[in-house]
Amino acid sequence: MLTANQKNLVSQANLSFLDLSEQRFCQLCQQPDLIASAGDNELIDFLHIANALYRGGEPVISDTDYDFTYLAELNKRQPQHPLLQTVEPEPAFAGKTVDLPVIMLSTDKAYSLDDVHRWAGRIEKACEELDKNFAKLIFKVTPKLDGYAAFDDGNMLYTRGDGRKGTDISRVFERGLQVANQGQRGLGPGEIVVSRSYFDENLADFFDNARNFQASVIKEKQLEEHAELAIKDQAAVFYPFALLPCWTGPWQALISDFEHIIKDIWHKVDYDVDGVILEIIDDELKQHLGATRHHHRWQLAYKENQQTAEVEVLSVTPQTSRSGRITPVAELEPVRLSGALLSRATAHHYKMVLDNGIGPGAIIQLARSGEVIPKIERVIIAAQPQVPSHCPSCHHEPIWDNDFLLCPNNFECPAQITHSMEHFFRVLKNNDGFGSATIKKLYEFGIRRVDEIYALTNEQFESMGFGPKQSENLLTQLLRSRNEAVEDWRFLAAFGVFRMGLGNCERLLAHHALVDIFNLSEVDIISIEGFAEKTAAAIKEGFIAIKPLFDRLMALGFNLQASQHSQDQAAKTLAGKLVVFTGTLHSGTRDELGKQAKAAGAKVGSAVSAKTDYLVAGDNVGANKLTAAREKDVTIISEQDFLLLLKGESA
Ligand SMILES: NC(=O)c1ccc[n+]([C@@H]2O[C@H](COP(=O)([O-])OP(=O)(O)OC[C@H]3O[C@@H](n4cnc5c(N)ncnc54)[C@H](O)[C@@H]3O)[C@@H](O)[C@H]2O)c1
Ligand SMILES: [Zn+2]
C-alpha cells in the first residue's frame, strides 16, 4: 500500500485510482510481468501515477523497470502516446507558472555504440546540408546529472515543468542553495543535485533516496533540518550544465577513444549520474537540427547497455508496415533479460539478415535497450538467412530499396491499408475503439479508406458482427473525433505522409494554412527551418497522394484548430536579434517583455555575450554589468527604447 504522502502526490497530480485500484497499482509495481496483460487504461493510469510519484520524489519502481517494462509496453501498444512523444509532465510544485526562457526537453537515448553512430550520421548529414566540415565539428561530453532539472535566468529559478512552462521555485535560492563551484547565477539550465557521499553519510537515514531529498528542497513546506544543513554545507547545490566538467574534441577523437572518455566523464563528479550527454558545439548547426517535442536532435544521452544474452533464433518473421517497408522480426528461444521475458527481436533491415546470416539456428547477442522489441546487436553464429520471397500480407513480390525490402503494392496490400487506417485514428487521438482488431474486421468487410468508416451506419456495424453496444460506441467515437477540437497539424499528421510526423506538420502549419499545403512548391517547403531539400520532393508527392482522401474527410467537417501563423519572419521588427533584459522593468515583468520580444522575432538570452545585440537595461543595473556589455560591443538601450523598437520605430 502507498504511504499517505504518496497518496497525496497522486491526488495533487489530479490523478485518482479510477481505472486502477491502489491495490492493483501496487500489484503491478511488484510484478512487472503482469503489465503485459493489463488493459490500456490501466497501463496509462499506471504510468501517470508512477511518473507523478517519481517527479514528486517518491519513486516506487526502478528507472530500469519504468523504461524497459512499463513504458516499453506503452510503446508497443501506442507509440504515439504523449508519454512517449513529449516531455513527461512534472507535478505542479507550489509557485507561479511561468514561460521558460528557452524550451527544456528530455533527451534522446542511446544504449549502444550503434545508436551513437546513427546519431552522428544524422549530424554529418546536417553538416553537408549547411556546407560545414563534419571533421572539424566539436563534440562535447558531460556527465548526465540525475537530479532535479531547473533553469536559472539569473532572476528566477524555474522547474522544467512540461518543457515550455515551469514553476517559479526561486525560493530554493532564498533558502540559501548555492550554485555549484561558487558559480554565478544566470547560467541557464542545470540540475539540483546532492553529493552522493554526503547523502550516504548524512542523509540516507532520513530520506529514502536522493530524489526524495531533492524534491524536499524544492517543496514549499518548511525545510527539514537535515536538508537545511545539507544546503548550508553546500552538499546540495544547483549545478548549471555550463559548469560541468567536460571533454571536447572532434568526432574522430571521440569515437577512437570512446569507452575511455565516457568512463572518465561518467565518474568525474560526486553526484548521481545516469549516463553522459553528447552534444555538438555549433549554434547554427544546432538550430538547423532543431528538436522534436521530446528532445533536441543535437543532443544525445548515452547510457550503459543493459544486460546482454546469447540466444538462438527460431525463425525470422516478416512484417509489412504502413509505408510498405518489410521488417524482419526474429522469433527467439525465450530468454529473461533485465527482468523481462523476451522472445522477439528486430533486425534493422533485410540487408542485415542477408549479410549476417540471420535465420533458424543462428545464435545472436541480444541487448535490452529502450525499444520494446530489442534489437539484434550482433550475430555470433550465422545460419542460412531467412528472407521472404513475397510480402507476408499481400503476397506481392517485394523490391529492394537500398538496404530495405519493400512491398510496392501500396494500394492493395492489406497490411499497408489497415495500418494506415489505424494510424489515422491513433494520431487524431480524440477517439477510442479503432485499434487493430476493429480495423481488421472492417477490412474484412471491404472497408479500405477512413472516409468509408465515417459513412458506416449502426446497422452496417452490426451486420459486420459488432455487438449493438459496440456499434453504438463506434458511432459515438466517430462523431466525437469530428466534434472534439483537434489541432490542424495533428489532423495532417494522421494522413501519415512520409516525413510528415507530428513535429514536421506542426512546423509546416506554423507557416502555411492547412488548405494551402497542396499548392506549396518544393522551394516553399525547403525555406522552412527543419526541412531538408531531399525530403521536400517526397513530401510534395505525399501530399498529392493524400489529396483525394483529404478532400473527402474535410467535407465531413472536423473541428480543426488552425495553427497560429507566425508572420513573415523578415517583416518582424526584431527579426534575428538577440536581446537580454536586466534590472528592474516597469512596463511588464521580464517574462512578459521577453514574450513581446520573441513575438517580434527576437531571441531572448539570459546573459550577455558577444552575440547579444541589445541589452535592455531597466533600473538599478550595476555599472560592472554595463561596462562588460559595452566591452562586448552590445548596444545598451533603455526600456523605453525597447518599446519603440518593438513598434518598429528606431530607438
Ligand atoms: N522510476 C520511476 O517511477 C520513473 C517514472 C518516470 C520517469 N522515470 C525516469 O525518468 C527518465 C526520463 O526523464 P526525463 O524526461 O527527465 O529524461 P532524461 O532522464 O533523459 O533527462 C533529460 C534531462 O537530463 C538533464 N541533464 C542532466 N545532465 C545533463 C547534461 N550534462 N547536459 C544536459 N542535460 C542534462 C536535463 O535536465 C534534461 O532535462 C527515464 O529515464 C525514467 O527512467 C522513472
Ligand atoms: Zn504487401
TrEMBL record:
<protein>
    <recommendedName>
        <fullName>DNA ligase</fullName>
        <ecNumber>6.5.1.2</ecNumber>
    </recommendedName>
</protein>
<dbReference type="InterPro" id="IPR004150">
    <property type="entry name" value="NAD_DNA_ligase_OB"/>
</dbReference>
<feature type="binding site">
    <location>
        <position position="303"/>
    </location>
    <ligand>
        <name>NAD(+)</name>
    </ligand>
</feature>
<feature type="binding site">
    <location>
        <position position="191"/>
    </location>
    <ligand>
        <name>NAD(+)</name>
    </ligand>
</feature>
<dbReference type="GO" id="GO:0006260">
    <property type="term" value="P:DNA replication"/>
</dbReference>
<keyword id="KW-0436">Ligase</keyword>
<keyword id="KW-0520">NAD</keyword>
<dbReference type="InterPro" id="IPR012340">
    <property type="entry name" value="NA-bd_OB-fold"/>
</dbReference>
<dbReference type="Pfam" id="PF01653">
    <property type="entry name" value="DNA_ligase_aden"/>
</dbReference>
<keyword id="KW-0234">DNA repair</keyword>
<feature type="binding site">
    <location>
        <position position="391"/>
    </location>
    <ligand>
        <name>Zn(2+)</name>
    </ligand>
</feature>
<dbReference type="GO" id="GO:0003911">
    <property type="term" value="F:DNA ligase (NAD+) activity"/>
</dbReference>
<dbReference type="InterPro" id="IPR036420">
    <property type="entry name" value="BRCT_dom_sf"/>
</dbReference>
<dbReference type="Pfam" id="PF03120">
    <property type="entry name" value="OB_DNA_ligase"/>
</dbReference>
<keyword id="KW-0227">DNA damage</keyword>
<feature type="domain" description="BRCT">
    <location>
        <begin position="569"/>
        <end position="651"/>
    </location>
</feature>
<dbReference type="InterPro" id="IPR001357">
    <property type="entry name" value="BRCT_dom"/>
</dbReference>
<keyword id="KW-0460">Magnesium</keyword>
<keyword id="KW-0464">Manganese</keyword>
<dbReference type="InterPro" id="IPR013839">
    <property type="entry name" value="DNAligase_adenylation"/>
</dbReference>
<comment type="function">
    <text>DNA ligase that catalyzes the formation of phosphodiester linkages between 5'-phosphoryl and 3'-hydroxyl groups in double-stranded DNA using NAD as a coenzyme and as the energy source for the reaction. It is essential for DNA replication and repair of damaged DNA.</text>
</comment>
<feature type="binding site">
    <location>
        <begin position="106"/>
        <end position="107"/>
    </location>
    <ligand>
        <name>NAD(+)</name>
    </ligand>
</feature>
<dbReference type="GO" id="GO:0006281">
    <property type="term" value="P:DNA repair"/>
</dbReference>
<feature type="binding site">
    <location>
        <position position="407"/>
    </location>
    <ligand>
        <name>Zn(2+)</name>
    </ligand>
</feature>
<feature type="active site" description="N6-AMP-lysine intermediate">
    <location>
        <position position="144"/>
    </location>
</feature>
<comment type="similarity">
    <text>Belongs to the NAD-dependent DNA ligase family. LigA subfamily.</text>
</comment>
<dbReference type="GO" id="GO:0046872">
    <property type="term" value="F:metal ion binding"/>
</dbReference>
<feature type="binding site">
    <location>
        <position position="160"/>
    </location>
    <ligand>
        <name>NAD(+)</name>
    </ligand>
</feature>
<dbReference type="InterPro" id="IPR010994">
    <property type="entry name" value="RuvA_2-like"/>
</dbReference>
<feature type="binding site">
    <location>
        <position position="413"/>
    </location>
    <ligand>
        <name>Zn(2+)</name>
    </ligand>
</feature>
<keyword id="KW-0235">DNA replication</keyword>
<dbReference type="InterPro" id="IPR001679">
    <property type="entry name" value="DNA_ligase"/>
</dbReference>
<feature type="binding site">
    <location>
        <position position="394"/>
    </location>
    <ligand>
        <name>Zn(2+)</name>
    </ligand>
</feature>
<keyword id="KW-0862">Zinc</keyword>
<keyword id="KW-0479">Metal-binding</keyword>
<dbReference type="Pfam" id="PF00533">
    <property type="entry name" value="BRCT"/>
</dbReference>
<dbReference type="InterPro" id="IPR013840">
    <property type="entry name" value="DNAligase_N"/>
</dbReference>
<feature type="binding site">
    <location>
        <begin position="63"/>
        <end position="67"/>
    </location>
    <ligand>
        <name>NAD(+)</name>
    </ligand>
</feature>
